[in-house]
Amino acid sequence: MKTRLLGAVAALALVAACSSTDQNAAATGAGGTIRPGSQEDLVANVGDRVFFDFDRSSIRADQRPVLQRQAEWMGRYADVRVQVEGHADERGTREYNLALGQRRANSARDVLVASGVNGARISTISYGKDRPAALGSDEAAWAQNRRAVTVVQ
């Protein structure tokens, strides 16, 4: 009798734990809702990155709409602060790529500010070639690594 009772209590505890885990996953966006104003919201509904041409830091015309959507999103979430990360592909020296990444981050920041976002809400940092998004030594990988990424703080 005691064994059956303990078994039933254990099964009930297991079901309750699974239910709690499912609720936690839904709250954080894993198959459920995404918290408005979060990094997940930015990525899913706006886009968090813009891409650059080789050895360039100017914002391409096809990337401006992403930054415009980011500015509008930041207008909806006035308490959100972001950091724009500048990145480069693996070619070039570390020092050169850090400077290029900084110029890319600054260019993205400048477009956000020109679109109405208070500059005090945006910081920048360069990672140069130290944090590649794609591994490989070909144009497909390099194109993914030449980017500026907006990260919610």
From TrEMBL:
InterPro entries given in the database record: Bact_OuterMem_StrucFunc, OMP_bac, OmpA-like, OMPA-like_CS, OmpA-like_sf, Pal, Pal_lipo_C
Localization terms from the record: Cell outer membrane
Subunit structure: The Tol-Pal system is composed of five core proteins: the inner membrane proteins TolA, TolQ and TolR, the periplasmic protein TolB and the outer membrane protein Pal. They form a network linking the inner and outer membranes and the peptidoglycan layer.
Gene expressing this chain: pal
Topology of the protein relative to the lipid bilayer: Lipid-anchor
Domain OmpA-like: 39-153
Keywords: Cell cycle, Cell division, Cell outer membrane, Lipoprotein, Membrane, Palmitate, Signal
Coiled-coil spans in chain: none
GO cellular component labels: cell outer membrane
Role this protein plays: Part of the Tol-Pal system, which plays a role in outer membrane invagination during cell division and is important for maintaining outer membrane integrity.
Family membership: Belongs to the Pal lipoprotein family.
Chief localization: membrane
Name the UniProt record assigns to this protein: Peptidoglycan-associated lipoprotein
UniProt signal peptide: 1-25
One BP term from GO: cell division
Organism whose genome encodes this protein: Neoroseomonas eburnea
